[in-house]
Design brief:
The complex is a heterodimer of chains A (about 190) and B (about 575).
Chain A lengths: L1 H15 L14 E5 L7 E3 L5 E3 H5 L5 E6 L6 H16 L7 E6 L7 H10 L6 E4 L3 H10 L13 E5 L6 E5 L4 H10 L4
Parallel strand pairs in A: 4-5, 5-6
Antiparallel strand pairs in A: 1-8, 2-3, 4-7, 7-8
Chain B lengths: L4 H7 L1 H11 L5 E2 L5 E2 L5 H14 L9 E4 L3 E4 L5 H5 L6 E3 L2 E3 L4 H4 L26 H10 L14 E3 L2 H13 L12 E9 L4 H25 L5 H9 L3 H4 L2 E9 L6 H11 L4 E3 L8 H10 L3 E2 L15 E2 L5 H15 L8 E6 L2 H16 L6 E5 L7 H8 L5 E5 L9 H5 L6 E5 H4 L14 E5 L7 E3 L5 E3 L6 E3 L8 H22 L6 H8 L5 E3 L3 E3 L13 E5 L6 E4 L7
Parallel strand pairs in B: 8-9, 8-10, 10-11, 11-12, 13-14, 13-15, 15-16, 16-17
Antiparallel strand pairs in B: 1-2, 3-4, 3-7, 5-6, 17-23, 18-19, 20-24, 21-22, 23-24
The chains are: A alpha/beta (about 190), B alpha/beta (about 575).
Chain lengths: ~190, ~575
């Protein structure tokens, strides 16, 4: 009986194979590496128009998560930002336990006003800063994370998670689902 | 099959919406059996409801649409609208390796062709082939991501929860979206127009039009040559060009000359457009304001690319005019941002604007005021100069007596001699701001004594630094030159400025016509320009674009003039000040 069931299941799975055109959503499609990054000493500006020294923000004793986005981005940024928003929602009152940092790759257009409205759209809570600055400083930050792109329209999805314990960064290239992102967060102590 | 019908229908939407509001007071009607019947919506109302879902992510009930991305990430439709990836025209986008396929009426209901003789292979990864959608399979793919071929869409496409009624309205909208070519398009040509108003210097006008007309002449000669039967070059062009639809079509450009006062322009524009509808307006030049043309474009959904004006309409939501910059307004903004970042004005400190009652003076003062308020400061005091009034030493001393922290003088070069009074004024403010564009050549004769505390908004680049990489793709370097003398100013006359911006306009047009790949819908025109990489400009240094961005030059330096008879401009700020 059991054998017949197993054979039927096998037959079904073989029959089903050609129908699976793309991998299921749950399958991991991103690349993950551990990196060390040296932060450039630049002063950027956040959504409130406040100057922020990047080094100080990055070397906080909280875990830090960084991504690169821009205010009028079409496809990738909304997904990265929904992940940030979702994490903040899960952390609820503890949203300040982790420092989320979105760095603009369109610093000419992303003024504090544009960034503030962007964060509002994703219902961002305290603990999520969107940073802009001079193009030269933004370039330095992109180079520091090995994330330089000359044209914002050819950017790629990148999430960088810094453990406050050893200062190392988890570099994730690709787009994660909610549970994958939360799992990566757990690895650096974000619960 | 393709014609202008949809646009007339969409123009009726506002009327339909209002009538819908009246009817919506009675959302259900009882039949004779006491049951409630579902209200039947007109086509216009259904388009309106579908458009709201597509563009704003809001259900007809006003609630956000609910969706999931990446399998398990819940998102409200307002954070993840259809328009954000599929764009306003529905023709889709390519960004960061993600190809968003078209969802417009013309493409959805026919099989999706991946390749035209291999030409589309430049974009990876390619979206899956599929048969034509039906209402049933389209609803299914929107809800579950399952394609008619049994595959699954990329999981960055949200899966939307939609009730049947809402789904029907969304599908109704998608069927209409970019389903027929826009006006101005025929099998043989693409028709454009350029607006020229009375009183424009003919030299400036011709400088703007020269690059555009040269491109059109070359393009049309090619189209003419390709039209010969059996022409091998044509076959090659159709196979090799990014847009085969463009090979045999010619481009035509009408001059819409507007006469008389600006309040009569709108009527003239409507009449031109009725007689010979243009797909889009290219460039354009005015002796004064641009607002009547802007309003014409906005209300008729006629895109206007790069009108040559320093007095644009400044709006965060208007869609149909893409300006080279915000002009004078942008200089006012730069002054406010520099003053804010500099921190010399104590909290609540007074700032006075002396404003000439002219379009230029008003634009400078409005830009300053808005950016100053946005930075969290109290509104500046404004002193308006009437036509007969000039800036005098007495006026300036009267203002400094109230000890303002900074003074803006938004006036032309006539006011320069009077500025000297400030050098010896008892309560001289820490900084005075003036506009290089308004001063024009007077910029170089700012009195020596006031130069140390006078800051000038300078909206042009010092140097053109372009580094070319392979395949013609330019990576723009920053303008790193710190000083500029008069002899080395890149653009020395209005006609040169028009010629340079005219060349940028022509470059944008050529790229857009290729990138549209035969999708001649007005909204596609600006959708594809929104994806163009930054372009070099000898006027502004860098022109940048992005979805929905409507002012290509985003920067303005704040400079000072060095001392002596042959002074230099010295940069005091970055190009963009935050």
């Amino acid at each position: 009986m059991l054998r017949t069931t197993l054979i039927s299941l096998f037959a079904l799975s073989v029959l089903g194979m050609p129908l699976t055109v793309q991998p299921a959503a749950a399958e991991t499609k991103y690349q993950r590496t551990i990196e060390n990054y040296a932060m450039p000493d630049v002063v950027l500006v956040n959504q409130n128009g406040t100057k922020v020294r990047l080094k100080e923000l990055m070397q906080s004793n909280k875990p830090v998560i960084v991504d690169f986005i821009f205010g009028t981005c079409t496809t990738i940024c909304p997904i990265l930002s929904v992940s940030f928003a979702n994490l903040q929602q899960k952390l609820a009152a503890d949203s300040r336990k982790v420092q989320l940092v979105s760095i603009s790759i369109d610093p000419e257009n992303d003024s504090p006003k544009v960034m503030k409205e962007y964060l509002k759209r994703y219902r961002a809570k305290p603990g999520w800063d969107f940073l802009t600055g001079s193009r030269a400083d933004i370039d330095k930050v992109m180079y520091a994370f090995n994330a330089y792109i000359p044209n914002k329209m050819s950017h790629f999805p990148l999430t960088l998670i810094r453990s406050s314990k050893d200062g190392k960064w988890i570099r994730i290239f690709g787009l994660m689902g909610s549970s994958e992102f939360l799992e990566e967060c757990r690895k650096v102590g974000i619960q | 099959m393709k014609g202008p019908g949809r646009y007339g229908r969409l123009r009726g939407l506002s009327v339909a919406f209002l009538s819908g509001m009246v009817f919506s007071l009675f959302p259900v009607v009882s039949n004779s059996f006491g049951e409630t019947a579902k209200r039947v919506f007109s086509d216009q109302e259904r388009l309106q409801r579908g458009e709201r879902m597509y563009r704003e992510g809001l259900l007809p009930s006003g609630e956000p649409m609910q969706a999931y991305v990446k399998g398990d990430l819940p998102v409200p439709g307002t954070a993840f609208t259809c328009v954000s990836c599929h764009l306003r025209s529905g023709l889709g986008s390519v960004e960061g390796g993600v190809v968003t396929p078209p969802t417009n009426g013309d493409k959805l209901f026919q099989p999706f062709q991946l390749l035209f003789k291999g030409l589309e292979q430049k974009y990876f990864p390619l979206p899956p082939r599929r048969p034509a959608y039906t209402d049933v399979t389209l609803a299914e793919v929107i809800r579950s991501g399952t394609t008619p071929a049994g595959g699954a869409l990329n999981d960055v496409m949200p899966r939307y929860f939609l009730e049947d009624g809402d789904m029907e309205d969304l599908l109704f909208y998608l069927k209409e979206l970019s389903s027929r070519y826009s006006p101005g398009i025929s099998a043989a040509s693409l028709h454009f127009a350029t607006v020229i108003t009375d009183g424009v210097n003919p030299e400036d006008r011709d400088a703007m039009l020269a690059p555009l007309e040269q491109y059109i002449a070359i393009k049309n000669n090619q189209a003419k040559a390709y039209k010969a039967p059996g022409n091998r070059s044509r076959q090659m062009a159709e196979n090799m060009l990014v847009s085969k639809e463009l090979a045999t079509r010619s481009v035509t450009l009408s001059r819409w000359v507007l006469k008389g006062p600006p309040q009569t322009w709108r009527k003239q524009l409507e009449e031109y457009n009725r007689r010979e509808p243009a797909f889009a307006l290219l460039g354009g030049i005015s002796s004064g304001e641009w607002k009547p043309v802007h309003d014409f474009s906005e209300e008729n959904h006629v895109p206007c690319l790069f009108p040559m004006t320093d007095l644009p309409v400044v709006s965060e939501t208007d869609w149909y005019t893409l300006y080279p910059s915000k002009g004078y307004y942008q200089e006012g903004e730069a002054a406010a941002r520099y003053l804010h970042a500099d921190g010399v004005v104590p909290e609540g400190g007074a700032v006075v604007q002396i404003m000439r009652d002219s379009p230029e003076g008003k634009a400078l003062a409005t830009g300053f005021r808005q950016a100053w308020l946005d930075a969290g400061h109290p509104a500046p005091t404004t002193v308006t100069l009437g036509a007969a009034q000039t800036v005098t030493g007495d006026l300036l001393r009267g203002i400094t007596a109230k000890k303002p922290a900074a003074i803006m003088v938004w006036d032309g070069p006539e006011m320069l001699p009077a500025l000297q009074a400030l050098a010896t004024a008892e309560n001289r403010p820490a900084s005075v701001f003036i506009s290089a564009r308004y001063l024009d050549k007077g910029l170089w004769s700012v009195p020596d004594q006031v130069r140390p505390f006078t800051y000038i908004t300078y909206p042009h680049t010092f140097a053109l630094n372009v580094a070319y990489s392979s395949m013609g793709s330019a990576k723009l370097q920053e303008d790193r030159q710190k000083t500029l003398n008069r002899a080395n100013v890149l653009i020395k006359s209005k006609a040169q400025e028009m010629a340079s911006l005219g060349a940028s306009l022509t470059q944008l047009l050529t790229m857009a016509l290729m990138d549209m790949r035969g999708n001649y819908y007005r909204d596609t025109f600006f959708d594809v320009i929104g994806m163009v990489a930054d372009q070099p400009s000898s006027v502004f240094g860098r022109l940048s674009f992005g979805p929905g961005q409507r002012y290509a030059s985003k920067g303005c330096y704040v400079v000072q003039l060095s001392e002596g008879p042959t002074p230099e401009l010295v940069k005091k700020s970055d190009w963009v000040i935050h």
